[in-house]
Amino acid sequence: MTSDEGSREMSIRITAQARRGMVALAAVAGLAVGAVGCGGGGDDDKKSPPASASKDSGSKPSAQEGQAETPLAELKGTDGLLLQITSAVRDSGGFVTVSGNLKNDGGESVAIPAQTSGDETEVVKHGQSLGGATLVDSRGKKRYYVLRDTDGRPLTTTGLTTLSAGQSLPVFMQFPAPPSDTTDVSLQLPTFSSGTIKISG
Question: Is the pLDDT of residue 121 over 70?
Fold first, then answer.
């Protein structure tokens, strides 16, 4: 091997080692950025206002999931309370999830009426909720109550207390599904007007 070939080979080796070093450095930098991106948000989490519903809300669907732009129905309550239903989706598991927003349209803070929990002892003992809601299938002449887990907890938003003026809270309720050919049902909630909603899925 000539000296020119030797220096060329040495130059290639150094270049290859330098490239490997740059790739390793880029990988480490990427991991560091990823770790920062996955962090808990620090003080930002503390600044968010406390929700009126407890975090123990069961299998709460995402507020954006399957929601329509125009509400399916608006149920008017007392003192400016308004329940806007944005989706009612039938699941293959045999239940219907109704999602929406509970809003205070008034100018003052409003306590959510205790009657929305219903009057069944098993449901009421788990705190204030929307456990008193029912779906009514007029054609099939059947009424469907909010589902409960094995401990009697209603599968709906719980921990409701008050809403400040203009505040809106995402809520959900799960019911047994009516027959597949039933699409229009009436949603009823104590102290609110009733409204007809269309089930999709």
Answer: yes
